[in-house]
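Box S1 | Example of a co-folding query
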Amino acid sequence: MDKLIITGGEVLEGEIRISGAKNAVLPIMAATLLADSPVTIRNIPHLHDVTTTMELLGRMGVHLTLNEKMDIVVDATTIHSLYAPYELVRTMRSSILVLGPMLSRFGRADVSLPGGCAIGSRPVNLHIKGLQAMGAEVEVINGYIRARVGRLKGARLVMDLVTVTGTENLMMAATLAEGTTLIENAAREPEVTDLANCLNCMGAKISGAGTDTIVIEGVERLSGIEYKVLPDRIEAGSYLVAAAITGGHVKLKDTRPDIMDAVLQSLREAGADITVGDDWIELHMHGKRPRAVDVSTAPYPAFPTDMQAQFTALNAVSEGTGTITETVFENRFMHVQEMQRMGAKIQLKGNTAISKGVERLTGAQVMATDLRASASLVLAGLVADGETTIDRIYHIDRGYERIEEKLAQLGANIRRVPG
Ligand code: EPU
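Box S1 (continued) | Returned holo structure for EPU
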């Protein structure tokens, strides 16, 4: 397995381009199952999770091709299997996103239950409850969700809690249902809005995406289109933290500052000088050490849980004491122990990490079992004395396109070593 080796101490400077959003492209790939002609998806990030989704769709008989611009063209008319196997769903929970589209379009779906994961138990009960409310018969047998229906019927769905992929699954399912569906307490994440925009281009009638009430008027059919995926706000935020933590100066291109308010606000509190345009962000620390910040994660537009680990790294080397509270997932602090091994002074109290910033960390051999935790260890390695080796980097490859190349472009001393 590949490793990343970082020698800390470089101040990051320069410009990089931000890729398409992982958490937007995955639901959009699932949404292609709803279309009766080929869909072309542009601004595809080259990520392991995208490859896994291609494999999943390919096994169902969906025809996928990459064109010369590296866009993915998905033709679901050749589908012959309405089945998502355990071995793929287990490695990538977002595979659950094929459930709603398959059931809505073809009246049946057998999708493995994802099971637990490194950041918490992550049940999918609300996906199932919503489909049942729309008239589907859904049972869990031998670890698989078995769903059957003639045609889904529009319903009023009041979500018990805010779930991103739950909202996306039900929104996709409702596009071809008979009548109107209302999703209340819907997730407002920009990736939900991007999916709604894509579905609307395909012929769906969705309004209210980006608010907590989404209205979907069912239509008879959806057709193929060309769609460009939203930029990745978490990738962008991670590189901004990389610049802030090293006292650097970077400019991100092809990004969307308007969907990053909470993260940009926290970086300003940490002492960053930030300027933005429509599609770029520039962060300048003027060589200063960051100040520790207090953040608490919550659904959008609040501070994202997917940026929590990166800010834990930032606080670890900032001036003063900062607290990071995780409210979305029950077990998302695995990076803390690894950072402690690098000399960080972090105390965990329930779901809060209290850090007393140290001047520098020390390089160590570390690893993590989820994507954002692994990314946060890369950030910690950038400000550690000596060498940091990060193991199990397939987690990083799931969600960051060529992280070592982008960081090297900004002046980091980082290399990938085949394992
Ligand atoms: N939940 C339930 N029941 C459900 C669904 C969710 O109890 O049926 C709970 C979860 O256990 C969790 C909370 O609701 O405590 C919120 O989870 P949510 O469903 O919103 O998470 P998700 O849809 O599984 C997506 C992203 C995650 C991101 C979260 C929160 C994708 C593919 N994944 O997951 O991204 O952390 O929303 O914003 O969109 C990542 O990119 O590293 C990542 C983990």
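The mean pLDDT is 96. The pocket of EPU is lined by residues 22-23, 26, 93-94, 120, 122-127, 161, 163-166, 305-306, 328-329, 371-372, 399 (CB under 6 Å).
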